[in-house]
C-alpha cells in the first residue's frame, strides 16, 4: 500500500506536501498509519490537516531538541547509550526496507545473521576504541585483559563464524536474494556502525565536538526550511524539488552565525571543552582539565574589510570559534548532500519515509541522514588539524613491542625532544 | 514453486494497481517498463538472462598441440599447463623481489575489481548509466590512495622526510582522502537520473562491497609481505596446495559429497587436502626459514633506493629442540626434533587454509550460481577469471594479518614513531616520561645517575 501511494507523490520528503498535493488529485491516497499520540490529535482536531501537520512537526521538533538537552545534562554515559540505541534503530530501519524490497522475510537464518553481524562489528569497534579509554580498568580484570590482548583475533573469529553460517545457509532457489541481503547488510553496517563509533570518538574528545556539529546540522535543516518557506523561489536540485537556493544560502549564513554564537557560549564551560576521561576511583566519567589553548580567549585583528562594518579594531574570540566556522560551513554545504542521498534512496525504493517512528517526521534515519557525513568530517578534522592520535593508545601499543624496538623508539623520541629544545640536557638519562 | 508463482502473481497485481494509480492521479512519473522488469528480476532467479558461454581464449599453439585428444583430456591438459605456467610465473616474481610482488598484487586487485564490476554491469544492464564507470574507477583510486598512504608511507618514512610536498600530503593524509571520497560521493548524488535511481543505488552499493572485499584484502596481503616474504609465500602456497591436493584426492578417492553448493567437492578430497597441506606447510616453511631473503622484514633503503631484506633472524626462525609428544614418539622413533618455531605457526596457517579457506570458494560458487555465470571472466584459459583463482585467498590474507598482529608481534614500530612525533610537545613529554619509567622498571634502560 505504501508503494502504490508513493507513486502519486513527486518527492518522498514531507508529509505536509504530500497531503496538499493529494487534495488536487481525484483519488485520495491511503494515509500512513497515524502515530500521533491521542492528546495531540484532540488538541489539534479543529485545525485543517495542513496546519495540523505543521503543528505536529513543530511540537515533535521541540520535543526532540528538549530531549537532546536533557541527555546532554545527564552526561557522557547516557549519551553513549543513546548513540548506541539510535544506531541499532537505524540499522533496523534500513534492514527492514531491504526485507520489504526483496520480499525476503522468509529467508532462512537471515534475520538472525543480520543481527549477528551487527553484534560482531559493534564488538570489534567497541573493543578497538572504548578500551583505550578504560585502559586501567581493563588491565586490572583478568578476563578483560585477555579479551583485549587477542581482541582482533576474537572479532575476526566471530565474523568468520557468521560468514560460514551464511555460506551454509545458501538455499538453491534463493541464492541471488541471499547475496543481495548479504550485500545490503554489509553496506548498512558500513554506513551506520562506523559513523556511530566516530561520533563516540568525537564525544570523548570533548562534548563540544559532539554538540556543536550536531546542532549545526539541525540548525541548517530548520533555517534552510524557514528561508525556503519565506523567500524560496529557485529550485536547487531535481532530486528534492522543495529545496531552493534561497533556503540553501540563507541556511548557510544562519548556521555559521549560530555556530559562532554556540561555540562562544560553550567554550566557557569546562564540562564541554575537556576530554572525557574515565576515573577509576569513582568509576564514572569526569571532564576536568586545564582548558587547552583552543578554549582560551585571544585577541584577533579584524580584517580591514570588516572593520568599517563592525566598527571594532580587534575582537576577543576563542580559537575554537574559527574551527566552528569550518564545521558550520561543512554542515551547510556538504551536509545536505547526505539528505539528497537519502531522498534518492527513498525514491529509488519507492518509500515515503524510512519508518514511522517519529510522528510527522518519519523514521530515525530521516532525522539523521545529514548527520552521517558530519560525524566522519569532524573526526577527520580533529585528527588532521586539532590533535594527533591518542597518547594513551600509543603507550599501550608501545608496551606490546619487543624490548629492542622499545629502546629504539625511546631513543629516537629523546633525540627529537632534545632537538626541539623541549627536553633540556639536564634531564638526559 | 507455488510460493514463487504466488509471489509473481502478487507482483503482477501490484504492478497493475500501480499503473491504475499513476493513470488516475496523472502523475508525470512515467510508468517505467524497465523498472518493472527489474523488479520482477529481483524476486525470482529464473528471470536472470543466461550469460552466453565464455569465448575460448586458449592460445593457438596449445590448441594445435592438443588437437588430437578428446575434449575432456584436452581441457585437463590446458588446466594443467596453465597451472604450471602460473606457478612458474609466481616463482619468477618472487625472485625479482618485493617491489615486483607489490606491483603484481596491485594489478591483481585492479583486475579482480574490474571483473566483479563488469558482472554488476551485466546483471543490472547498467552499461549506459551516466558517469557510472568513471565513478567506480574513481572510488577505486580514492580507496587505494587512502590505504597506500596509511600503510606504505610508513615504510618509506626516510624517503618522505626529505621531500616537502610529500610531508604535507602525509600530514593531512586523512583529510585529503576524505575530501577526495566526498567529491566522488557528491558527484554520485548529482548524477542521479530520474528513471534510474534504483539501478544507480545498486551499482553504488555493488562498488562499495567490491572495494571492501578486494582493496582491503590486497592491502593486508602487502602488509603481510612487509612483515617478511615468508608470511606472504607460505599462506598463498598453502591455499594453492590445498586446492590442488583436494582436487587430486577427490579425483581418485572421492565418493561422499561435501556441500550442495559445489557438487564436485567431496569429503575425501577435503580431508586428504587438509593433511597434505599441513605436511606441505611444514616442509615448505622448513626450507624458507633458512634464508634471510624470506625471513626478514622488508625495508626500504633510502640510499640505494631499493628494498632490502637483511637482518638478524628473529627467534621464530632459529632452530630449537622440541620434545616429541609420547604419542608420536612411538610412530616416528625420535625423542626430540629440531624445528623452527615458525613451523608451529605454519601448522595454524595450513589448518586455516584447508578448513576455512574453502568457504571462500563456496561463497564464490554461490555467487556465480546466484548470478548465473560459469566463471568470473575469461582471463585465464581453462581456469576462468583471476577471481576464480583468488577466491580462497581473500579470507587467508585477513587471517594471516590478524594472526600476526595478535600472536607474533604488536603494531608496526615505525608507524608508532610517526604518531609519536606528531603529538603536541606537552603530550610528547608526558609520553616520554611514562616510557622512561617503564623501561627503567623493566631493566631495559639503566637509570641515570642524574635521574
Automatic annotation (TrEMBL), chain A:
Pathway named in the protein's UniProt entry: Lipid metabolism; Phospholipid metabolism; CDP-diacylglycerol biosynthesis; CDP-diacylglycerol from sn-glycerol 3-phosphate: step 3/3
One BP annotation, GO: CDP-diacylglycerol biosynthetic process
Top-level taxon in the UniProt lineage: Eukaryota
InterPro entries assigned: PC_trans, PC_Trfase_euk
Region (Disordered): 1-37
Catalytic activity: 1-octadecanoyl-2-(9Z-octadecenoyl)-sn-glycero-3-phosphate + CTP + H(+) = 1-octadecanoyl-2-(9Z-octadecenoyl)-sn-glycero-3-cytidine-5'-diphosphate + diphosphate; 1-octadecanoyl-2-(9Z,12Z-octadecadienoyl)-sn-glycero-3-phosphate + CTP + H(+) = 1-octadecanoyl-2-(9Z,12Z-octadecadienoyl)-sn-glycero-3-cytidine-5'-diphosphate + diphosphate; 1-hexadecanoyl-2-(5Z,8Z,11Z,14Z-eicosatetraenoyl)-sn-glycero-3-phosphate + CTP + H(+) = 1-hexadecanoyl-2-(5Z,8Z,11Z,14Z-eicosatetraenoyl)-sn-glycero-3-cytidine-5'-diphosphate + diphosphate; 1-octadecanoyl-2-(5Z,8Z,11Z,14Z-eicosatetraenoyl)-sn-glycero-3-phosphate + CTP + H(+) = 1-octadecanoyl-2-(5Z,8Z,11Z,14Z-eicosatetraenoyl)-sn-glycero-3-cytidine-5'-diphosphate + diphosphate
Main EC class the enzyme belongs to: transferase
Chain intervals with Basic and acidic residues compositional bias: 1-22
Sorted UniProt keywords: Lipid biosynthesis, Lipid metabolism, Membrane, Nucleotidyltransferase, Phospholipid biosynthesis, Phospholipid metabolism, Transferase, Transmembrane, Transmembrane helix
Enzyme Commission number, as recorded: 2.7.7.41
Mode of membrane association: Multi-pass membrane protein
A single cellular component GO annotation: endoplasmic reticulum membrane
Record flagged with keyword Transmembrane helix: yes
UniProt subcellular location: Membrane
Transmembrane segments: 109-126, 153-171, 178-200, 206-232, 244-266, 320-342
GO molecular function: phosphatidate cytidylyltransferase activity
Family from the record: Belongs to the CDS family.
This protein's name: Phosphatidate cytidylyltransferase
Species of provenance: Rhipidura dahli
Taxonomic lineage of the native organism: Eukaryota, Metazoa, Chordata, Craniata, Vertebrata
TrEMBL record, chain B:
Pathway annotation: Phospholipid metabolism; CDP-diacylglycerol biosynthesis; CDP-diacylglycerol from sn-glycerol 3-phosphate: step 3/3; Lipid metabolism
EC number: 2.7.7.41
Enzyme type, top EC level: transferase
GO MF assignments: phosphatidate cytidylyltransferase activity
Signal peptide: none
Biased segments, Acidic residues type: 12-23
Keyword Ion transport included in the entry's annotation: no
Pfam families recorded: CTP_transf_1
Catalyzed reaction equations: 1,2-di-(9Z-octadecenoyl)-sn-glycero-3-phosphate + CTP + H(+) = 1,2-di-(9Z-octadecenoyl)-sn-glycero-3-cytidine-5'-diphosphate + diphosphate; 1-octadecanoyl-2-(5Z,8Z,11Z,14Z-eicosatetraenoyl)-sn-glycero-3-phosphate + CTP + H(+) = 1-octadecanoyl-2-(5Z,8Z,11Z,14Z-eicosatetraenoyl)-sn-glycero-3-cytidine-5'-diphosphate + diphosphate; 1,2-di-(9Z,12Z-octadecadienoyl)-sn-glycero-3-phosphate + CTP + H(+) = 1,2-di-(9Z,12Z-octadecadienoyl)-sn-glycero-3-cytidine-5'-diphosphate + diphosphate; 1-octadecanoyl-2-(9Z-octadecenoyl)-sn-glycero-3-phosphate + CTP + H(+) = 1-octadecanoyl-2-(9Z-octadecenoyl)-sn-glycero-3-cytidine-5'-diphosphate + diphosphate
Transmembrane segments: 76-96, 131-148, 168-190, 202-222, 228-254, 266-289, 342-364
InterPro entries: PC_trans, PC_Trfase_euk
Localization terms from the record: Membrane
Keywords, sorted A to Z: Lipid biosynthesis, Lipid metabolism, Membrane, Nucleotidyltransferase, Phospholipid biosynthesis, Phospholipid metabolism, Transferase, Transmembrane, Transmembrane helix
Membrane topology: Multi-pass membrane protein
Domain of life (superkingdom): Eukaryota
GO-annotated cellular components: endoplasmic reticulum membrane
Gene Ontology BP annotations: CDP-diacylglycerol biosynthetic process
Family the entry assigns: Belongs to the CDS family.
Protein name per its UniProtKB record: Phosphatidate cytidylyltransferase
